[in-house]
């Protein structure tokens, strides 16, 4: 996990030069700078953003996090509470872990998804909110956390409270 965390920092720096980069091992969105959470030990998203701002601050201040994992990204949300330079778009199932009410205050665009959402509905929500979010915030950098449990039949994203 430590190497994957460094991979997120490296990928963010490469993205500045190449305009995109991928780290398939990162996305530890439940970890904050103060603690781990869920399956996440290190706060790679927070660390990548802080690294960019510290060492590439002439290019990067306004950062948008687009978190499409099925779970709320409460770790980085807690780290950027009241940070007007960070805009968080979080698509997640509101009925599953972690349901962190305090961290929700950091979410700029909060979209609820459900295990029954199909591709068309999910992508429709995404296509509806992203252009406005990008035009409103005008980020210097976009960090995208893909997640895999947002897939329709993934059991980690499908538990709902009835």
Separation of termini? 35 Å
Q: Treating each run of at least 4 consecutive H or I residues as one helix, how many helices? A: 5
Number of domains: 1
> Given the C-alpha coordinates, what overall shape results?
globular
Q: Provide the gyration radius in Å.
A: 15 Å
SSE ordering: HHEHEHEHE
Helix and strand content put the structural class at: alpha/beta
Into which percent range does the helicity of residues fall?
25-40%
> At CATH's second level, what is the architecture?
3-Layer(aba) Sandwich
CATH class equals Alpha Beta
CATH homologous superfamily name? Histone deacetylase domain
List descriptors.
about 160 residues, 4-stranded parallel sheet, alpha/beta, Arginase, Chain A
Give an account of the 3D structure.
- With 162 residues, this protein is α/β, with parallel strands linked by helices.
- The chain has a single domain (2-157), classed as Histone deacetylase domain (Arginase, Chain A), CATH 3.40.800.
- It contains five helices and four strands.
- Strands 3-2-1-4 form a four-stranded parallel sheet, with helices on one face.
- The radius of gyration is 15 Å and the shape is globular.
- The mean pLDDT is 92.
